[in-house]
Amino acid sequence: MIGFAEVYIKTNRFKIEGSNYLLMRALKKITGFINKNIIYILVVIIVINGIYLYRLREREKEIVSLTPKYHFFFIGQNAVDPFWKQIKQGVESAARDMNVVVEYNAPRFNNAEEELKYLDIAITSNVDGIITHVSNGIESIERINEAYLRGIPVVTIENDSKTSNRDAFVGTNSFQLGKEAAQLMVNATEGKANIAIIVSSDFELDSLNQNLKINGFLSGIKDYPDMKVLEVHTSRMGMISAEEITQSVLNSHLEINAILTTNAVDTLGAAQLIIDYNKVGEITLVGYGDMENILRYIKMGIIYGTVMSDPYRMGYESLMALMNLKEEKSVSTFIDTDVRVITRNNLYEYEESIDIIE
Asked: Record's Gene Ontology CC terms (predicted)?
């Protein structure tokens, strides 16, 4: 037994020593390889480290790029009108493209006092820029001028405040709106019409722009001697007032056969009275806007057509104007977003374009 144990121990010692010998030889070979190729190995290590650091920096850049560049404040006229919803969509689209944050606020329905409160919040918060609808009155001018003194750029949208220190106005030339409405009326009546105009005197609207629309309309029909504006009425209470005025027009002895309205609410009010009095086809109505019922009435032939601004483009361009003010320190004081004309002939294409935006 003892002899066998000694043989077993010696055999295993030989195996261990043999393994150690092989390990030592392998280590020597590896050491020799490293010594001979140390420069190449260092180069590989440096390259790997460089790639790692590059990717790390790129990741840091991505994180930084996700941080918004500016915080802007957008004040709409109301939160329910499809027109202002499309403006909001345009602003948000430009905000995504430019990597900025836009805080949106608007009264649920038209309310000049709420608009002023939102302006106060924006100025107090010292935001990087303001896009705002403005109402008539010295209060709006005072707020815009205060923002100017604090170094906050202000872009007015859809309704201007020319006497303030706003930096730019984004909207449509009201005179051109009137001319396009005149062309619609000419087309609808073949250049022969006794016309009543219903214009809004809503305190939230710019009376100068309303006058420009009327002047544009008169300019558009001046070469048509058989087209005459016989009455100009002022709507003071929205749709109900427009209905009452239309009722008065239809009951008058002036044989009026065409009506022009200059805002969406009055357009709907006039259309409703034309329906109620069974005057569809007898009274030509040219209006303003693209509210759902307005488009439906155009499709039914109750409204011949409407003119309006391009709300999505208006929103997009207003934010781009703020970006130019922040980045380039300059911008055009008036950015014209052109006129949209809607009739039965292009209604399908127009509704498709709205669906794409939404």
From this structure: cell envelope
